[in-house]
Design goal:
Elements: H1 2-6, H2 17-27, H3 35-44, H4 57-72, H5 75-78, H6 84-111, H7 116-121, H8 125-133, E1 141-142, H9 145-155, H10 165-188, H11 200-217, H12 219-223, H13 234-245, H14 251-273, H15 278-299, H16 331-360, H17 366-381, E2 389-390, H18 392-400, H19 407-422, H20 432-442, H21 449-458, H22 460-475, H23 478-498, E3 501-507, E4 514-516, E5 529-535, E6 538-539, H24 544-561, E7 572-576, E8 582-583, H25 585-600, E9 604-608, H26 612-620, H27 623-627, E10 632-633, H28 636-646
Parallel strand pairs: 5-7, 6-8, 7-9, 9-10
Antiparallel strand pairs: 1-2, 3-4, 3-5
Helix pairs in contact: 6-15, 6-18, 6-19, 6-20, 8-17, 8-19, 9-16, 10-16, 10-17, 11-21, 11-22, 11-23, 14-15, 14-20, 16-17, 16-18, 21-22, 22-23, 24-25
């Protein structure tokens, strides 16, 4: 290799004319937008009106105002074409939705360690706000099991709801307010990517683990236990159940709970089997509440150990503005809980909304959804509601019932409001076991074994994320499950960033297409020219050294292998940078070191198709000057032809 190092670089000649012209396109492209321009564009895009053909300033102001109002209140847009036929469908869907939502809301309030009326409050104000601001036509807004579990499991670590329920409610309303603020911020500043930090695999594992934890929590109501643990992990719950079984317990609770759980699941099976009977599964929870309440009242089972709800406060949502504490001693803890609830709630709502929007053939605006959901929770926090989001089970019922717009949410909210005013006294004898059975009946939809198996088959690393979230929630806590999922996800990203793919390319015979010789063995490598593709969007400090060492290692191996055959000796290396969108100073240093090492081997470097930001920084960092402007090309085929021409056809084309 000493003789190789002593070889001087051959005198270069300009590449052929076509390459020179296309190289000019690469080098003389306009400057890419700066960070300031991008930030201003992102913020301004939210309410920027379309250009008006009119010249009047008043017309432009009216256009801006109308566009801004329609962006915030989509009802102003679709309301123009709303008709009586759609209204009839929405009324029927809203009434069906209320029959499912009323018992579920009471059960979820119990899961959130709140009085039953707070679940009903949450089914009134947030749906009304979402109805005028949301873009999904089918989504049903209200309390959901997972968010209820999140709130109770995290807030009770600050204040015990059993000993200080007033302070507990104050913290719940504060968390709800801050969650709404975070959600609105995500939408206004186009920060929806933060929701994507929880990958699909993490959500599948988290939901599965949370469903089992929620089910275990319902053993308290199902068995009629008086003492139970506040911990959510499976070990603590199992210990609490076994210790409680030694105390006197009343089988009536278990009998009621299991009977109505079987009833609800049976009606759901019938509804899925016979599509026209979907309404049967929708009203089965309400029927369960009515029948069980009547049975307990008739038999006075509450005097024989059956646990009942007792008093439920009637009336409209009371104001809770004064209970929101933004400067109290627990504000920091509330903010931490709020951002977790905000992300989980948005993830569930957007996933539900998009799945049904794709069926109906329209597009859901994720940023508007975040703003609508955030405003719903901000308004809800001021009217005694806790965090609301889109419920998959209720949305499915809403869709099956023929909902055409968010008016179904308004009908549901009005129906719940009437129930709050008139029927709350009738819930006095409702058994706790039937509420547990209603929550348990909603859990199978959260455990997606088929999707977990699909993740295992497709991507083992993603399955590890799924398993980490599942085990973390099940044996640790909700925070631990989310933390494990995020840690594994970021570890996956870092590993892939540190060791990106670097591929040797060959030409498909008879074409100008270059592709990986490993992926496409029929691709033919060009003698004397080594073509290498860098498969990373950001050539930076974390991967520049690995890429440099891999390229130099391959080139040295190729030189040594062809040392005895002068005809096949490598004299040029083409770096395909079409995937490199951006580059930092470490990446620039790495390119310079690659250039120096290749020069020491007597090899010319050429660069093909660098990204917009990348070529701009290569010019500013004088990397282009060191390599030579004539060795920057628009395409790989032009770079290869330029190298062959410059070396006077010392190698033949593939």
């Amino acid at each position: 290799m000493e003789s190789m190092a002593a070889v001087e670089m051959p005198v270069t000649v300009p590449a052929f004319d076509v390459s020179s012209r296309t190289a000019g396109l690469v080098l003389n492209s306009p400057n890419p937008p700066s960070l300031r321009d991008e930030l201003v564009g992102v913020i301004g895009k939210a309410f920027r009106p379309r250009r008006s053909n009119g010249d009047g300033g008043g017309a432009r102001r009216c256009a801006w105002t109308l566009t801004a109002l329609q962006a915030v209140f989509p009802v102003l847009q679709w309301g123009k074409t709303y008709n009586l036929k759609s209204f009839r469908s929405d009324v029927m869907a809203g009434l069906t939705l209320a029959s499912l939502g009323i018992p579920q809301s009471i059960g979820y309030a119990n899961l959130a360690k709140l009085d039953p009326q707070y679940g009903l409050y949450t089914s009134v104000v947030p749906p009304l706000i979402y109805a005028v601001m949301g873009t999904s036509r089918e989504i049903a807004i209200g309390p959901v099991a997972v968010v209820s579990l999140l709130l109770s499991s995290m807030v009770q670590k600050i204040v015990d709801p059993a000993t200080d329920p007033a302070t507990y409610r104050t913290l719940v309303f504060t968390v709800t307010f801050l969650a709404g603020v975070f959600q609105v911020s995500f939408g206004l500043f186009r920060l929806g990517f933060l929701v994507d930090f929880l990958s699909h695999a993490a959500i599948v594992g988290f939901m599965g683990g949370a469903a089992i934890v929620i089910g275990l929590q319902q053993l308290k109501g199902l068995l009629g236990l008086s003492k139970f643990t506040n911990s959510t992990d499976v070990v603590s719950v199992a210990k609490a159940v076994f210790s409680a079984l030694h105390d006197p317990w009343h089988p009536g609770n278990f009998l009621i709970g299991c009977s109505f759980l079987i009833f609800i699941l049976a009606t759901r099976f019938i509804g899925r089997r016979y599509k026209k009977l979907f309404w049967l599964s929708a009203i089965s929870p309400l029927l369960s509440v009515i029948l069980s309440t009547a049975a307990v009242y008739a038999t006075r089972a509450d005097k024989h150990g059956v646990k009942i709800i007792r008093e439920v406060h009637a009336g409209l949502n009371p104001s809770s503005i004064k209970q929101i504490q933004l400067n109290g001693p627990y504000t920091t803890e509330c903010a931490k809980i709020a951002i977790i609830c905000a992300v989980i709630a948005l993830t569930e709502a957007i996933a539900v909304g998009r799945s049904f929007a794709s069926i109906r053939g329209y597009k859901l605006d994720g940023n508007k959804e975040m703003i609508a959901m955030g405003c719903s929770n901000i308004a809800g926090s001021m009217s005694s509601c806790y965090v609301a989001t889109g419920s998959f089970s209720r949305t499915a019922v809403n869709f099956s019932a023929g909902a055409r717009s968010t008016v179904s949410n308004i009908v549901m909210a009005v129906t719940v409001l009437i129930a709050l005013e008139l029927f709350m006294k009738l819930l006095y004898y409702t058994p706790m076991a039937v509420l547990a059975s209603i929550i348990l009946s909603a859990l199978p939809g959260l455990i997606d074994i088929r999707e977990a198996w699909s993740i295992w088959k497709v991507d083992k690393m993603d399955f590890l994320i799924c398993l980490g979230a599942f085990v973390g929630v099940l044996f640790g806590s909700v925070e631990i499950g989310l933390g494990v999922a995020l840690a594994i996800s970021f570890a996956k990203i870092i590993i892939q960033s540190i060791r990106p793919q670097v591929e040797v390319l060959g030409r498909l015979q008879g074409t100008n297409i270059f592709c990986s010789v490993r992926q496409y063995p029929v691709a033919c490598r060009t003698p004397a020219v080594q073509v290498i593709r860098i498969d990373t969007s950001f050539l930076c400090f974390i991967n520049a050294t690995f890429i440099k060492e891999r390229i130099i290692e391959w080139v040295r191996a190729e030189v040594e292998a062809s040392n005895e055959k002068a005809r096949e000796r490598v004299h040029s290396v083409v770096l395909d940078m079409s995937n490199v969108v951006n580059i930092d100073t470490s990446g620039l240093v790495g390119l310079e070191e690659i250039h120096k090492d290749l020069v020491s081997l007597g090899i010319q470097i050429a660069i093909a198709s660098p990204g917009w930001q990348a070529i701009q920084k290569m010019k500013l960092g004088h990397v282009v000057d060191r390599i030579g402007e004539e060795w920057i090309f628009l395409t790989v085929s032009e770079a290869v032809e330029g190298c062959l021409t410059a070396h006077k056809g010392s190698a033949t084309e593939c």
